[in-house]
Specification:
Elements (H helix, E strand, L loop, with lengths): L2 H9 L8 H15 L3 H16 L30 E4 L12 H15 L1 H6 L7 E6 L5 H12 L3 E4 L1 H6 L2 H15 L5 E4 L16 H17 L5 E7 L6 H4 L4 E4 L5 H11 L11 H7 L5 H17 L7 H12 L4
This protein binds adenosine-5'-diphosphate and magnesium ion.
Length: 333
């Protein structure tokens, strides 16, 4: 990464010493030192330390990302619809509560990305094809966005609806064009629930072979990909995962349901801007919510918070949180 960009990035980093982004920042400083760029390393270190010391400032500008303007998402030839959709940096979800082992694995992907040039000098390749798997609402798509956020990379999500629905015969070439277009463009490309292609219903019997071919082409493109960015695929755990799938990826990471501690942390995070009724015991609620996905925990918390805001109450009431929990418990069955 060029020095001006690094400096700008570092100026926008906030958080505390233990936050994932700050740890990535320190590993970049180490990288620069190892490359012999001691001056750069020292300057980045000073910027980072100043930022962390100045952590109370709420006026700090948001993370600045260099926008790469000469990249155009290829369009489906027939309907001229984009084959991938872009999410602006500011819109990326990234504030996650994760088990330490998952956080470490995500951090390893990020560190390897930053160290990619040094790895290449040793004939090594960073992890750039990653599979997130786990049950619904446990942060698979969010983790992909978080990686793009942490690395300040543009984020694109493949539009399987456009790719497949346009015209089956063109699906393979759509996929090929999309992969070609991103080959030299550093970005995070998300293949969200990518196994959905193979599970399509309403496919005429004579098209089954064609769908099979498209799945194989996608797997082939994944296997061949050695571009500048990171490809992240996700799949819901609603059946046995085909073991042959795993070998297409450099890393596969399971995103489990939250433990009681993670539920309590997530409730704290979700409620952080609001006051809680003193009678609310979060660890107690976390216990009652055991087995829920992250998404449902957030929904329980948000439902109670919305009620407080709508009724112009200055804090979240115990009764409202209980009600919200009972309502949403239905969803989890
Ligand atoms: N680890 C997490 N930390 C905080 N919130 C989470 C986490 N995982 C999921 N969520 C919440 O659940 C929602 C859905 O997550 P998502 O990544 O879309 O789930 P998945 O792709 O696994 O179905 C997110 O928008 C977020 O509110
Ligand atoms: Mg998802």
């Amino acid at each position: 990464m060029n020095q001006a960009l690094l400096t700008r990035l570092f100026k926008s980093i906030e958080g505390n010493e233990s936050s994932a982004l700050v740890r990535v920042a320190y590993s970049i400083i180490e990288e620069e030192k190892k490359k012999g760029h001691n001056g750069v390393a020292e300057r980045l270190n000073t910027i980072l330390k100043n930022n962390l010391a100045d952590n109370s400032s709420s006026l700090r500008p948001a993370l600045k990302v260099t926008r790469i303007t000469n990249f155009k998402v290829p369009l489906d030839r027939r309907y001229k619809l984009p084959l991938a959709s872009h999410i602006e940096h500011e819109g990326l979800r990234h504030n996650m509560i994760l088990p330490t082992d998952v956080e470490d694995k995500i951090l390893r992907i990020e560190k390897e990305y930053f160290a990619r040039e040094r790895l290449a000098h040793h004939g090594l390749r960073p992890r750039k094809k990653v599979l997130f798997y786990g049950s619904s609402g446990c942060g698979k798509s969010m983790a992909a966005e978080k990686i793009a956020w942490d690395l300040a990379l543009p984020f694109y999500k493949v539009r399987f609806d456009t790719i497949i629905s346009s015209y089956l015969g063109e699906s393979a070439s759509n996929l090929q064009r999309l992969f070609e277009s991103i080959n030299e463009f550093p970005c995070v490309l998300l293949l969200d629930e990518f196994d959905i292609i193979g599970k399509q219903r309403n496919i005429a019997a004579n098209d089954v072979g064609e769908v099979h071919r498209i799945v194989n082409i996608l797997l082939g493109l994944l296997e061949e990909y050695n571009g500048e960015g990171i490809i992240i695929a996700t799949t819901n755990l609603d059946g046995v995962i085909d073991k042959a799938l795993f070998r297409r990826f450099d890393d596969f990471i399971e995103l489990p349901k939250p433990t009681q501690k993670e539920i309590a942390d997530l409730l704290k995070l979700t409620f952080s801007a609001l006051q809680l009724d003193l009678k609310i015991d979060l660890p107690d609620f976390a216990k009652a919510m055991h087995g829920m996905s992250y998404a449902i925990v957030v929904k329980v918390a948000n439902d109670a918070a919305k009620k407080a805001v709508i009724n112009s109450k200055d804090k979240i009431e115990l009764e409202d949180l209980k009600k919200s929990l009972a309502e949403n418990a239905e969803l989890n069955k």
